[in-house]
Structures are given as structure tokens and as C-alpha cells.
Amino acid sequence: MFHATAPLSATGQFSVKLLSHPIAEIHSKYAKSCSDCNSTTTANCAAKSGYVSCSCKPGYVGDGWNCTLMAFCDTRPCCPDGYTWDTKQKLCVDINECASPTLNKCSPTDTCVNQNGTYLCNINRKAPCGGPGSSSCTSDHDCLRISGAAQCADPCYNYQQVNGANRLANISSTGRFPTDRNLCGWYRYVGTGSSLKEGCVGPLKCGSLEPYTLGGSHPKIGDGIQMMPLLINSVASGCYNGLNISVKACPGGHYVYKFSGSLKFDVYCTGDTTTTPTTTPTTTTTTTTTTTTTTPTTTRTTTPSTTTTTTPTTTPTTTTTTPTTTPTTTRTTTPTTTTTTTPTTTPTTTTTTPTTTSTTTSTTKNTDEDTCTKGHTQYAKSCSDCNSTTTANCAAKSGYVSCSCKHGYVGDGLNCTIMEFCDTRPCCPDGYTWDNKRKLCVDIDECASPTLNKCSPTDTCVNQNGTFLCNRNRNAPCGRSEDSHCTSEHDCLRISGETQCADPCYNYQQINGANRLANISSTGRFPTDRNLCGWYRYVGTGSSLKEGCVGPLKCGSLEPYTLGGSHPKIGDGIQIVPLLINSVASGCYNGPNILVKACPGGHYIYKFSGSLKFDVYCTGETTTPTTTPTTTTPTTTRTTTPTTTPTTTTPTTTRTTSPTTTSTTTPTTTRTTTNTDEDTCTKCLTQCWRLGSGLKDGSSLVSQLLGDSQCSQMCPPSC
Length: 719
Fold this sequence. Notes:
- The chain is mainly β.
- Among the domains are: about 5-10 and about 20-100, no CATH class; about 380-430, no CATH class; about 505-630 and about 640-675, no CATH class; about 680-719, no CATH class.
- The protein is about 5% helix and about 25% strand.
């Protein structure tokens, strides 16, 4: 498998580091029954809960659906898609699609990451499109390769078609489960099921095992290209957020979706065809929306010359004034619209796309039952870990159980309270509060609360049932100035009530890594890290996240997260690294991304953004950050003897200030510092002073700034 680590530069561009091994591991395939496997002679069939797993027997090669006798592989194709037969090693080896101009379907600005049997595309919409001197594409266009040339073009007229009829949400999965893992690029669904299904549908639907659905409402015409989270409808973990995709509403009355490959063998689930795109939501002045209906058709007539399908030129946009797409239109009027002053400017034929920018922290809800919910169940090792046989139900699973409260009791299954007591004592799970009138637990909107919303100032808070998620936006300006973008070393943080770019190496919260170690088999009640939001450092045994797959029921969790790439090095700055989900049903596959940074004190910090899954981030043995791989001669680097800094063990070198000096992002955040190098102090103080006063000369800054309270907070106390 190839693991990718994508660092963020100051301009938002990605670079990729790859770790590889040459021999690939062939995946099995899923189906409804053993009769759907190749045959009893050539394939093994493992019965699961509601489905089976097919794999080829020893001596045969394939994916379980198609198995070929190994002796024939030298003369005929026998490997699954994404693999090729190696006549010397006598096995199927992975094809590196990223190295092939014909197989690599990633956009010119995206980064191709090879994986076993497939590849992934890391989206980068801020990179320049084209040759030297080119600029990045606008929110309406994407960087596409048309007739061999990279150019900004409208995906509404440059897409591939895929049939949505056999992916409908009302289809129960039978036979051999199809896969959409190789979809890469812009796609439009045609036929019955012309748009992705919004919300959760559950597993074994849409013809798939754990289908993807859309985790939010579709955009409107004029919104441009928007990033939307996908929901994974898991067998073991319910419905939770997965990767993001790009979505755009087109004037022709359809949507286009940009897929980037997947490690899961599942499909993107479609819904009914009633969700036709509407115009941009001008919630403040509904009378002016009738004038904006003509705009979607005026600006699209110049681009169809590059289309692969010219059918979208029919523009049924007369229905755009009626926001009757789905009940989700009520979700667009979020409480935070009062904070954005842009909607007050009446949109004159341009539909004012900046009104939907995600740089402001606006709350949106993406489920139909976000105000009335029963609370999630919890997972444990055995029924004795549930609340009690009197108060809780226990459903046995494969190697674990699911706990839920019985009728008349309120809670998550691990803790259940009789309903009559809820008017006078806390009884709801975290993220919920008791409604005395309706006599049930209702969701708390953390995004609307300044104390509960822990998202960074530039991130977008998205409320969910029982929790919230933070959609990152590192390209947004930090603070009042439009030009104040954070560098790759800093993140936009709220310190002492002020928004500023700061080094997260000195602004984080601590968390114990000992009870999340990869060698711990999950017993008792499984803990959860779903509410972790912000920058964290692991302390104690297990001070860094585990790299690679570990499998389910490890780390004290059901389906733990592990790191899908190598840790960055000191000097690499903040990097984007994918998480791996160690699933019970689907094996090990890529989940959401997190931010990681190697700090000079010999430790790592991780930025989490919340989760819909009730699992933990798995830790491994203590690894110490190394320095950046300087390809130039070491004598030219500014840092003296880089190898001496990270080799110190963290317990002996860490210098933490007293908890009374917690002037960080949240009141619980502990400020720590580990660097005593004089050169690092000068660099930190120089950057701090320049941020404060624009000083150009960095001479004798240590003596000038020792009394500056703001800079002393941002830099190590030893400075």
C-alpha cells in the first residue's frame, strides 16, 4: 500500500511523499449469498451479518467473484482491476496508475496518490491551472484537461455520465455488490436517480454493502463548486461522515459531482429525481429572486464548445424561484446569517456567489430529525457492560454488542435513566438536552454557542446530532485583514479572545495515549473521541498516532482510526494526512483527513475536527520527530545541527508552564514549550513582532520583546 502525506505550503499547494511496498494484497469482494461467489471449487465464502465475503482459494487468483487457476495467469488476464500479473513472483502486483498518463484521471491541479488496486486524487482548488503565470480557477470552474491542455472550465459542460437507476436508495442489496471505487473526475447521474441521496439510508442499500450518501443539502445555481461531506452507512458504526466531494448545481436542471476514487468497494447512492437545482438563496429579500432566475442561462452559453455532452443546454430554470426542492431548504436560514452582512447587497444578475462562502462560521444541519432525536446507541464487549438487563437492551454482534436503553428509559445504553426523573436531573447523552414539554432528548446546537463551538475562526461549524463537525478552510484570511493568511507553520487560532495566526506547537490540549494503544484489545465499554476538536498532543505511553492498519476491536475501540501516512518531519510545517478506518465489515480504508505537525520539542500535534463515529484515534509506540530532509547541503540551512533537536526524549525535555497560564484557544488548553534553542527564539520573536508592528529589521529582538506579553505567549517561555 502507498501512504501519502500532503503538506500545505504558504500558497495552499500540496506535495506528496510516498512510502511503498511492491507486493500488493488482493481484496475480497462482497455479495448477498455464497452462490454469488465464483464457485465452491475455486472460491471461499465467509458468512457475515446479512452478506458474505468472497475470496479465491489457494492456487487460484482473483477477487472471489472471478478466480483463475494460477497456472493460466502467465498466458491470460487473471488479476482484478488495478493489478497485473508478475510472471517472476507468480502473483498479482499493484499497477501504479499515478505514473501512467492514460490511467491517471486526476485533475491537473490535484495530487495522485497510488493505492492497492486503485488510486486517490487529493483535491487542491487553490493551485494555479496551466503553465507559468497562470492563476487558480474561480468558484464556478475547475482545472480540467481538455484536448490535452490544462484549463479552467465549467464542469457543467465537461463530465461523464453514470446510470443512477441501479443505485437507488430504495434498492435492497442482492447478488454481487457493485463498486464505484474507480470513479474519478466529474460525473452526472442520468435516468431514474439523477442526484445523490441526501441523509442516511443504512447499510445493504443501493445495491451496496455500506453505500455513500450526501451529508448535506445540494447547492443551488449560482453557488459555484461546493465541498460536501459524504456519509458512510456502515454495518457496525451506523452513519458517519467520510470524505468530501465537490458538487455543483447546473443551469440545465442537474447536478455534477467530482469523485476522487475510494478504497471502499461501495457505491454512491442515488435518490429520486425531484431534487432539481434552484437559484441562490437570497433569504433577506425574496422579492428580488424573480429577477435572478434569468442569470443562470446567460453566462453559460460560451462554454459548451468544450462539452463532452451538450444536452445540458436545455435550461428548465423556470422553477428556480420556488425553494421546494427538499425540506432541507429550511436549513439554509441558519442563525449565523445575521452575522454576515453580504446578503444585504441585492444580487443584480450575478447572483452574488460570495453570499455562500464558507469562510464565516455558519451553522447548518444536515438531517431531517436534527431537533428531535433519540440519541445513539453505544458499543461494548459484552452485555454485562450495558447499563443493566432491567434498563438496557443488548444486541449481540460479531465480537461485540450494541447497548441501547429500553422503552421508558433515556440514555445511550451504557447509562440509562428512568424518564420520570429527567425533569429534575441530567439524563441525556453528551450533545443532547432534555425537553420538558416533548419529554425527550433534543440535540444541542453547539455551533450557535460561543463556548461549545471549538472550531478554529476560519473553519465552518456544522451541527450534527449529538455533536458538531469543523470543516477546515486554511485558505481563508485570519483576523480582520483580507491579506492575513496563515503560513504553513501556523494555524488561525483564537487566543485570549483574539483571532490570530499562531504556532499550534505551543497552543494545544493534552490527551492520554496509554489507553488507546494499538496492542490493546477492546474490552468493557468502548470509549469515544468523537468530541475532540482542535489541536491535541498525546502524552504518556503512546505519544503519537499509530501508522497503518490495525484491524477492528483494537485500541479499546470498535473501529479505531489510525494514520494513513507517515508522520511529518520538523520543518515540514502543518501537513494533511488521511486517517484510516479499521472497519468490521469493509476492512481498512481511507477516512477523513486531519492536520499534523512535528514540533521542535520532540512530539507531534494533531488537529481533530469532530466525528460522527463513536471510536478513538489509535496510538502507537512513542516516535520522535526527525528533521526535514534537506536536499541541499546542510551548511546552507539556517538551523544549526538539526539532528540534535528532535532526538531528546519528550519526558525529559518538555517544559510546561503552570496551568495558571492557560491563555490558549480554550480554557482547558495547556500551553507548553519544549524549545530552548536561541536561534528558534529569535525566529519566533521576529515573526511575532512583525505580526504586531510590521518591523523589518530583526536585530536585537530578544532584548526588545522580552517584556511584550503577546509575543511571550506565542513563543517559548525560555525566550
